[in-house]
Design brief:
The protein is mainly α. The protein is built from 4 helices and no strands.
Length: 83
């Protein structure tokens, strides 16, 4: 577990949209070695929902549009994966 002060000092320099984008990129890079489009599609859809539900007061509006895009692209990637 990270101490709360470390998280707080990180978030003071950046907004929550930038922090969520960093977590999204790191989780996407983490799923690449699995070579599964299903997991990549679930990851994109989940973060699309998170970006869409993040209040505009905490993040800039263009993160909401990123969320909408990920909500469209995520299921397409999921369905295109082989079983």
């Amino acid at each position: 577990m990270l101490p709360l002060q470390l998280v707080d000092t990180f978030l003071l320099d950046y907004n929550i949209g930038q922090a969520l984008l960093l977590v999204f990129v790191l989780s996407t890079v983490g799923t690449l070695p699995l070579k599964s489009r299903h997991i990549l599609g679930i990851n994109a859809t989940l973060f699309g929902l998170i970006f869409l539900l993040t209040p505009v007061m905490l993040a800039k509006p263009h993160y909401m549009f990123l969320g909408i895009t990920l909500l469209v692209v995520g299921p397409i990637v999921y369905v295109s994966g082989r079983r």
